[in-house]
Design a protein that fits this description.
Helix content is 76%, strand content 3%. The chain is mainly α. It has a three-stranded mixed beta sheet. Helix 4 packs parallel to helix 9, helix 4 runs antiparallel to helix 10 and helix 11 crosses helix 12. The chain starts with 8 loop residues before the first strand and ends with a helix.
């Protein structure tokens, strides 16, 4: 059978309400978007300018911040434009492209968090061999695998998506083109597509989460064997930021993509999606900067240099 798609545009329902509610939503999301971009750019700039942060751990963190900038930029600017103009239309091709990029970046973040867990495992369980194992080639290989794995993840789901027919209606009960609300609009048999989406989601989330679970099991055992309480606290403090990000990201992603269809309302889906696609990219830099002494020292150094430069210019 040939593709009989008749729908050329979709309408993103997003968040309905009165004009004042829409204005409040626009202002809130605009503020979150600006803060997220500035926070993640600050993390990247701190890592680039401070030689003490030229370590694998912060190289991964810089990549995570770079990913978060694009991750939130895939959905939020389009939502802001839709609210501001009132035009909620999105072309079919643009919708599919948004879904591909969003899935690619989400999967890449899963693999990147796994690579960061492996880095912490080597640092705590094999500290004497850390510099030997985590050389530039190893770090680069882990990053390439993370980004490449993320890029390959949506290929099969998108292939089955474009094979579906959309005969109408065209109202997407979401603020961006996510797989689940799009599949609900498709005509004909979509069981294969739903199975493919579920299997791919499980493989990505479980495989990356399994790596994190195994590495942190060994890390926990290594920390418990430490005789010094100060050493245990220091080792644990280097992991708490990463664990916090993992719990927030995987918790919301798992609830969204690994649940049984029909188990949640459209409003719940949108609320959970806001958390992992909007709130999490904003929180990650805050979590890492508050819990990491090296990042705080680099930030203080930048602020001191800025004050000195400002005072010199004023003088």
């Amino acid at each position: 059978m040939t593709n009989r798609t008749t729908v050329t545009t979709f309408l993103l329902v997003a968040f309905s309400g009165c004009w004042k509610c829409q204005f409040s939503i626009f202002a809130l999301f605009l503020l979150v978007y600006i803060m997220t971009i500035l926070e993640n750019l600050l993390i990247i700039l701190l890592i680039l300018q401070d030689l003490r942060l030229w370590k694998p751990m912060y190289f991964f963190l810089g990549n995570l911040s770079f990913l978060e900038i694009w991750y939130i930029s895939v959905t939020l600017p389009n939502l802001l434009v839709n609210i501001l103009t009132g035009n909620r239309e999105i072309f079919y091709s643009a919708c599919i492209a948004q879904l591909f990029i969003f899935t690619f970046l989400g999967a890449a973040e899963c693999y990147l968090l796994s690579a960061m867990a492996y880095d912490r495992y080597i640092a705590i369980c094999n500290p004497l061999q850390y510099t030997i194992i985590m050389q530039n080639n190893c770090v680069l290989c882990l990053l390439i695998c993370s980004w490449l794995g993320g890029f390959l993840t949506p290929i099969l789901p998108i292939w089955f998506m474009i094979k579906l027919d959309f005969c109408g209606p065209n109202q997407v009960e979401h603020y961006f083109c996510d797989a689940s609300p799009l599949v609900r609009l498709a005509c004909g048999d979509k069981k294969v597509k739903e199975i493919v989406d579920f299997v791919v989601s499980v493989l990505v989330l479980i495989s990356s989460l399994l790596v994190i679970f195994i590495t942190y099991t060994y890390i926990t055992l290594a920390i418990m064997k430490m005789s010094s309480s100060h050493g245990r606290f220091k080792a644990f403090s280097t992991c708490i930021s990463h664990l916090s990000v993992v719990c927030i990201f995987y918790g919301t992603m798992g609830f969204t993509y690994m649940r049984v269809e029909g188990g949640s309302t459209f409003s719940t889906n949108k609320l959970i999606s806001v958390f992992y696609s909007v709130v999490t990219p904003m929180l990650n830099p805050v979590i890492y900067s508050l819990r990491n002494e090296d990042v705080k020292l680099a930030l203080r150094k930048v602020l001191i240099n800025y004050k000195c430069l400002k005072g010199h210019i004023t003088w």
